[in-house]
Each structure stands twice: as structure tokens, then as C-alpha cells.
Amino acid sequence: MKKIILFWMALFGTLAVQAENYAYLTFEMTDGAKASVAVSSLTLTISDNTLTAGSQTFILSNLSKMYFSSSDETTTGIEEITNATLDEATEIYDLKGHKVSKDQMRKGVYIVKTNSRTYKMIVR
To answer: What is this structure's pTM?
Structure first.
């Protein structure tokens, strides 16, 4: 456990020197979700298998990576329903979470992911 704590302390010490121009420390989870914490007056605490950064708490095994960023990259959810085309779609899911192809889509609501965003789509 001491080795892990020393590793994290060394890592954060190194990153702090490089973080001068960045306002956020962003954590990416294994499921792709992101959470950003402001670096001003940032306090990091590791206890058992959890990392506390400011007011955010993370389970260490769920963290994929962390990096400094100039903007808040917190995942906020799907905000709109659109009638956009499916030309840019990289993944399509029904509301049960099943991945479907364009030709499998019937009447209903779908979650459509593209390279730049994720949105809800209604097929009528």
C-alpha cells in the first residue's frame, strides 16, 4: 500500500509542474464517462480503494486515465432529441441498451453516437 501511495504522490508531483496552464484535472472512467475537478486548491486523498479529488470520489479500479485539461470535460448526458440523419452514426442503441444497426431500427427512440456527440433520435 505504501508503494501505491508513493507512486501517486510522485505522479501528482510531476503532473503539478506540468499543469500550469490547465484549469481542470479530468478523470476518465472505464465506461468512458468523464469528470473534471478544478485544480485551484485541489486536494487529493487516497483511502483504501478510493481516490477523493476535491468534492469528487472515485473507485480506483474504475479509473481508466486522468489528465489535465483547459476546460471542464464532465460527461453531462444526452441533451436533445433530433431528426438528424444517420450518416455520421458510429453506434446506435435502443432504450434497452441493445446495439442495433440502421436497418434494424423500427418505430421508437434510439441513442445515436457519432464521433462528435451523442443524441436521442425518434423513428416514426
So the answer is: 0.48
